[in-house]
Design brief:
With 664 residues, the chain is an alpha+beta fold. The chain has 15 helices and 34 strands.
């Protein structure tokens, strides 16, 4: 009787909730990280929610764990929402699992986090490899005294009259001042013919002379940008424009230390710790080829050992912790270049591009020419590589196609490699694309597709039950041509037929969540859709600290009214050049060129890039595709200009604005 009563014991709501969370943590760790928990006791525990990615530092977690027994090792993988603890005895790990499971601790932001502990046979995680410092990068510690630091910080008057020509209106995530020459963020350059009055502050003279004398710098700078960063602020990854500045760029960190991320075009990211009062010197490859930026967050992952004061942050999981950011002010000194750049990195050098970046189109003829050169020709060249990155269908698009009635005739206008043509076998789907090489790939996959222009699709009017246009209309260079592409979709539909349209969004962070495009920064550049990073690991484990804020957004985004009056692009003036975007960063212009770094086979039946005699791969070609990224409301405004159309739905999906239209 007692046994029967015990087996029917009802758990309380709290106990049921805890067991559900415990099971969810186990399943999440297995599914996303390959970490398999065991039911029997071992010396090692995995601690879900007790990781650097949750804002839990080594200094917080270790004392809590040590109350249960002698800890042999605490392993905290970078940016992960879990950690591993190995006790000297099984008794210690058993005690920890009993006493700490479901225990709440407070993270560095004062938020409560619940720990879930499970036994594992071994501690395992995805190794990131040992990062090496970008060539040409040097960090000099304690380059100035604390007295000089105080003097420099006090020399910057952030409250002075805005009439001062050195004054720079605050950007969204930092305050900025320029001296010597003003740096223009809309084109990442300086006006060499318009130096600012007064030159560099007098307080800098003796410091710069000392650095020159001691060999830390080679040139006397004539341009200074002062940035002030609050905790949680950052600056997008970028390369200082080659034609604007000489080889040497140096940055002095004052007030607080920071971790700056350096990224190679291949996607490898190297975090570098810049201590307070240190000087960062970038020359050669680190200056010309690698991007550098600061991720907006309130804590940095750093080495726990006090012997590591600066330089590359290693992936030693036994020696990582979190460091709270303070207010940091940077003095970045540059020498304005008076002659074209002739560096050894022509693929990313604006002075050595075979042809200069195109201007904003001022007519339909210019827009058509721009699309031929920077859309159609590029996709022919990159078709093979592009196709290899386009294999995972997006769930909302699949949902739209599977909801259509059996036997529906569907046109995929701009079908690419045809990844959506075979989603629903009950439909009659036909694809079209401007690229012959992509259409050939569709044919190889036994899909029906043909070559045509999306503005003139050779299908009878009113013959389609549905159309889809995925990542196509943002390649048209004027508002009129984008509306014409939408109107062509409507022409194909029968009355009652529906069209699904996706375009790239200006807002790559929406409702405080980053798009996949921003989250993934370790894969090769140019892979807009595919990613190795799965954010659901942290979301499913729960209680992820809101550590990351917006990267710098554009100072202004055109309004819907701008679009309706023929605007909708961030033009800066007649014949201004299109900016080249830095991959995996926020957009600063609606009309821009996005680089594609070619890898493997460039196109259909094309050979890979040659190797030099030593067997190393030759330089990989970089192509630039034109995009007009849509701001919120712009796609809906364009749809409202169409005749015989009802807007059924509009939504945001992973960095894209999307609409479903119906012909009436």
């Amino acid at each position: 009787m007692d046994s029967h009563h015990h087996s029917n014991y009802k758990l309380s709501k709290t106990e049921k909730k805890f067991l559900r969370k415990q099971m969810k943590a186990r399943h999440t760790l297995l599914r996303h990280e390959g970490i398999e928990t065991v039911s029997y006791a071992t010396q090692i525990l995995v601690i879900a929610n007790g990781g650097l990615g949750n804002g839990v530092s080594r200094n917080q977690l270790l004392p809590v764990l040590e109350k249960s027994g002698q800890v042999d090792a605490l392993l905290m993988p970078p940016h992960k929402p879990y950690s591993f603890v190995r006790y000297e005895t099984v008794e210690g790990s058993k005690e920890a699992r009993v006493t700490l499971n479901g225990k709440e601790i407070v993270d560095d932001l004062g938020q409560k986090i619940t720990l879930y502990l499970n036994f594992v046979e071994k501690a395992q995680w995805k190794e990131l490899g040992l990062p090496t410092s970008p060539p040409g990068l040097v960090v000099v510690e304690e380059i100035i005294s604390s007295e000089d630091e105080k003097m420099l910080l006090e020399s910057v008057n952030w409250a002075e009259d805005t009439e001062d020509q050195n004054f720079q209106k605050s950007l969204k995530h930092r305050r900025v001042k320029h001296f010597g020459y003003e740096f223009h963020y809309e084109n990442n350059n300086v006006d060499k013919d318009k130096p600012l009055p007064g030159g560099l502050p007098d307080v800098c003279d003796s410091i710069l002379e000392k650095w020159l004398k001691e060999g830390f710098i080679r040139h006397k700078p004539d341009q200074l940008t002062v940035n002030q960063y609050e905790p949680g602020h950052g600056i997008p990854a970028h390369i200082d424009t080659h034609s604007a500045f000489e080889d040497e760029i140096v940055s002095l960190s004052l007030g607080s230390e920071i971790v700056m991320d350096f990224r190679h075009p291949d996607g490898v990211t190297v975090p570098v710790l810049l201590p307070r009062r240190s000087l960062l010197v970038m020359t050669g490859e680190s200056r010309y080829l690698w991007t550098h930026g600061i991720t907006p967050r309130k804590f940095d992952t750093v080495q726990a050992s006090k012997s590591h004061k600066s330089g590359v942050i290693t992936s030693d999981v036994g020696d990582l912790t979190l460091n709270r950011r303070g207010i940091r002010t940077s003095f970045t000194f540059r020498k304005v270049r008076q002659t074209p750049c002739n560096c050894g990195y022509p693929s990313v050098c604006d002075s050595q591009m075979e042809e200069p970046p195109p201007s904003f189109p001022e007519s339909d003829k210019e827009a058509s020419q721009l699309e031929r050169e920077y859309v159609h020709r590029v996709y022919e060249e990159i078709a093979g590589h592009f196709s290899s990155t386009r294999h995972t269908p997006w769930p909302h698009i699949v949902e739209f196609l599977k909801a259509l009635p059996s036997g529906s005739l569907v046109a995929d206008v701009g079908c690419g490699n045809g990844k959506y043509l075979g989603i629903n076998k009950e439909l009659y789907m036909i694809g079209c694309d401007h690229s012959q090489n992509l259409v050939d790939i569709c044919s190889e996959r036994q899909f029906q597709a043909f070559v045509c222009d999306a503005l003139a699709v050779p299908i009878r009017s009113g013959s389609c039950d549905a159309c889809i246009s995925i990542a196509v209309i943002h390649h048209f260079a004027t508002a009129e041509r984008r509306v014409a592409a939408l109107q062509e979709l409507v022409r194909l539909l029968r009355p009652g037929g529906k069209a699904l349209v996706y375009v790239w969004a200006m807002e790559q962070e929406y409702n405080k969540k980053k798009s996949k495009y921003l989250r993934e920064n370790r894969v090769g550049q140019g892979k807009q859709e595919e990613t190795n990073d799965d954010p659901s690991v942290q979301e499913l484990l729960g209680e992820q600290t809101p550590d990351v804020g917006n990267p710098d957004a554009a100072n202004s985004v055109p309004s819907v009214k701008d679009f309706q009056t023929g605007g909708g692009s961030s033009r800066k003036g007649t014949n201004s050049k299109l900016p080249v975007h830095t991959n995996r960063t926020s957009f600063h212009s609606q009309d821009l060129l996005v680089p594609w770094h070619l890898k493997g086979n460039p196109g259909k039946d094309r050979p890979a890039a040659p190797c030099d005699p030593a067997g190393a791969p030759g330089p990989r070609p970089v192509f630039h595709r034109f995009y007009h990224v849509f701001c919120e409301g712009e796609l809906e405004a364009a749809c409202r200009t169409l005749s015989h159309v009802r807007l059924l739905q509009s939504y945001y999906d992973q960095g894209n604005w999307c609409v479903i239209l119906q012909k009436v």
